[in-house]
Amino acid sequence: MKLLRKYFASVSIVLLIAMLLAGCGKPVESNQPEEPAEAALYAAGTYEASAPGNNGDITVSVTFADDKIEKVEVTKHQETSGIADPAIERIPQAIVDNQSLAIDAVSGATMTSKGILEAVEKAVVQANGDVAKLKEKVTANVSHEKVEKTFDVIVVGGGGAGISAAAAAAQNGVSVAIVEKTAALGGNTIASGFAWNAVNPETQSTIETKPGQIDMLKEFLEYDEKDFGDFADTLKTLKTQINTYLAGDTSIMFDSEEFHMIQTYLGGKRQDKDGNWIEGNYDLLSTLVKKSLETNKWVRSLGGKYSDLLTSPVGSMWLRGHNPEDKKQIFDALSDFVLKQNDKNEIMLETRAEELIVENGRVAGVKATKVDGTEVVLHANKGVILTTGGYGANAKLAAEYNNYWPSIPEDMKTTNVATATGDGIIMGKAVGANLVGMEFIQLMPTANEKTGALTDGLLVAPQNYIFVNKEGKRFINEYAERDTLAFAALEQPGEMFYTIADQDMAMTSQNRPTQEMIDKMVEDGIIYRADTLEGLAEIIGCDAQTFVDEINKYNSYVDNGKDPDFGKPVFEMKVLNGPFYACPAKPAIHHTMGGLQINTNSEVLNTEGKVIPGLYAAGEVTGGIHAGNRLGGNAIADIFVFGRIAGENASK
Q1: What's the half-sphere exposure (Cβ side, CA atoms, 13 Å) at 639?
Q2: How far apart are the C-alpha atoms of 504 and 102, rounded to whole Å?
């Protein structure tokens, strides 16, 4: 028993020693509280969110770690290629780099920038992030040294006229700078339909005559030369051409430069509210028409790619619209050409020109400011070319000058990019330039009802257009000029209407949509679709029988080639095969007809009709070519023709 007690005592001592040794590894208890682990800033993961951009919703995918935003990607959008690209590229990266939502909008893509930021904000909320903290603006005091440079030619504005002018000047071997206030080249040109009117005998000789075109041509034989002023001889020549054509094979479509000129003249001759008439300048209009095809071939020679399919934009009056394969490609090709011609050539983006420099009575440069506030002074050895576009996004200025429409509300939507505010007109006027035609503004009748965008929806050719109002009734000759269509649209209930198309028309639209694109437009509510005409009438909210009868009646007019209701002269397709589509449309500010007065050398004239030395202009910043109303497809011809002329003359 005694031995047993000694054994248990020994075991107890061993166990006690083991416990003491084990206890050495534990922390010493303290009365101080333990420091809590740092809380996560986000619930890690990838989240998707959407917000409105300029042309529809922008969708982003945002990846978060516990402590930071790792990646932002724009996964879906309908923004305009070229214009929106800088925002889509820069804003997501800036959010990641700065771990902030206090990011400045990209100049020229404000709505796109805001859409991306708002979508990312929604994703931050999903990830339990602190939006308010991410929006705290940290402003660094950075000193920007003044930029002062000299070039032979300075081009102010990077749209179609600007890139054309720069390319022509660079081709002549001089140094060129393009000053563009947005973050990308393109301007209104890249936001447009981009159809370029040019009489092209080679291509047009393969196009069959459409129903109604012969009767339309015969109407020109009834015009009296005495009513055509400087264009009397042009009309006389046109009559001879038409008679010769009618006496021969009329199965192939007719066209001529004289026909294009007379149509442009008639399309622009308008009367203001005070009874004053305005008509196109013969020399300018003749230059536009006669150099259009030649200039289009010149752009192709510099790398621009064009489709061989001719189109007829709304209000164009004939089939002669040439379209690029890709709008952005034209600017890429021409800007590459400019930069390769001379190491000194430069494209200054996000640089806003504000004042022309005048020395010894000659325009000798430009004062500008970069988006970060940097002062820029550019000197021009040879000339300055203003290609800043019109003032279609400046509704206040449009309302101030308007003397054609009953009114231009300051909240009227526009098809223009937001930066079309009349900068060049203001700068030119400040140095004595004469302004012509400012009281005339063109409305685009078929703009998107909600956004004012030109390219939302189905861009059906005018010969296939069918317009119905909210009652399901046609109300106008859809082949008419744009102002005629707009006046009629503004008289309809709600000042809006619908363009109607069947599946065949939809797939042959001039914006060449895929079925996937059409489905997306339906999903986004840009256009409406139904399997039957009755179903489409229900969506529109009109009486089904009235609507169906109206479409059937129109189809019969296509068969007969005559429209006894409204006199539509040219037809092509009928509304037959479902599904059927309706695009809600409403007039919006599209083109400002007036601007700086120029001569055929693209030199700007002062109020005394004399050339302002060193100052040139081209494009919508000018006035006098289209007079009171412009034919669809003539603007692109205008900006490239006179842009090229300006570049060539300024470089001499």
Answers
A1: 31
A2: 47
Tokens for 125? Answer: 């909320």
Do 435 and 386 meet the contact criterion of CB atoms below 8 Å apart?
no
DSSP 389-442: ---TT-HHHHHHH--SSS---TT--BSS-TT-S-HHHHHHHHTTB-EESTT-EE
Residue 73, C-beta contacts closer than 8 angstroms, at least 6 positions apart:
60, 61, 62, 92
Query: Tokens 């709505």, residue?
Result: 111
Rounded Cα distance, 57 and 118, in Å: 11
Angle of the 282-290 helix axis to the 634-650 helix axis, nearest 10: 100
CA end-to-end distance (rounded Å), the chain? 127
Closest CA to 431 of 205, 175, 605: 605
When pLDDT is averaged across residues 185-208 and rounded to a whole number, the result is 95
Phi, psi of 260 (to 5 degrees): -60, -40
Q: Which pLDDT value is given to residue 26?
A: 39
For the residues 330-343, what does the mean pLDDT come to?
Answer: 97
pLDDT digits (tens, 9 = 90+) for 125-176: 999 999 999 988 665 555 689 999 999 999 999 999 999 999 999 999 999 9
Q: Is 512 a catalytic residue?
A: no
Other Cβ atoms within 10 Å of 498 Cβ, number: 25
For the stretch 389-423, pLDDT in tens is: 999 999 888 999 999 999 888 788 999 998 999 99
Other beta carbons less than 10 A from residue 10's beta carbon:
10
Using CB atoms within 10 Å of the CB of residue 100, give its burial: 0 to 12 exposed, 13 to 18 middle, 19+ buried: middle
CA distance 205 to 187: 34
For residues 312 and 142, the answer to whether their CB atoms sit within 8 Å is no
Active-site annotation holder among 482, 529, 630, 644: 482
Query: How far apart are alpha carbons 244 and 474 in whole angstroms?
Result: 36
Peptide bond into 579 cis (omega under 30): yes
- C-alpha distances in angstroms, 13 versus 21, 287, 359? 12, 115, 108
